[in-house]
Amino acid sequence: MDSKKTFVPSFVISLEEVEHRINMLQEFIKKYMIKGEDYGEIAGVSKPTLLKPGAEKLCDVYGFSKIVEVKNRVEDWEKGFFHYEVEVTLINKKNNTIEAQGVGSCNSKEKKYRYQDSYTIVNTILKMAKKRAFIDAVLSATRSSGIFTQDIEDLNIEEETIKYSTEKQRRYIYNLSKEKHLDEEQLKIFCKNVIGKDKPSKDWNSEEASKIISALQNLPTSSIIIDTQKNSH
After folding, report:
1. 68-99 per-position pLDDT tens digit
2. Domains of the chain: which residue ranges?
3. What is the C-alpha separation between 83 and 108, in angstroms, rounded?
4. CATH architecture of 33-160
């Protein structure tokens, strides 16, 4: 045997299968995961951050069960300092094998909790550590770290994530547009003029939807306010 011969390990699955799995994951995210609920986006950040509801959806569709274990805890009731380190293990329900393990920690000195009464948010801190560990495990198990990140959690994503328009707001806008005798194209141009951007209604934030509603309410029904032919040039 030639001792200089280099052995390259073969892939466990084919490249076609890898591509198929990636495409299926991307298709699931596109069809079933909701921006602002399952994941959040912040301007200037290249990847959206995976939120707990989205992690739970991925966990369910992949068929994982989870085991949560607090690996370390510091509970200083005298000084009011609390720290938790958690490990989450994801188990494949079909064959009972471990798919991934995630770790997460949280403490009362973090910026998000520093000025709160630490004695009353002990459970919140523990839950946050569990959530971080869970999302970490899901990203590893589903190989979706190339699509999502959880690092934005440290920037208080849940507080800073844009609040997107509700279905109720969008339905009300649609009904108002009918009352004002606007067709679909006219409504699209009207909304663009109000918020200064051309974007799908599902991507409106709550403030933009409120502006559109207010503008429609103040629009005289008999007015011809949009020249679609002019705007098309």
Report:
1. 999 999 999 999 999 999 999 999 999 999 99
2. 33-160, 167-226
3. 7
4. 2-Layer Sandwich (3.30)
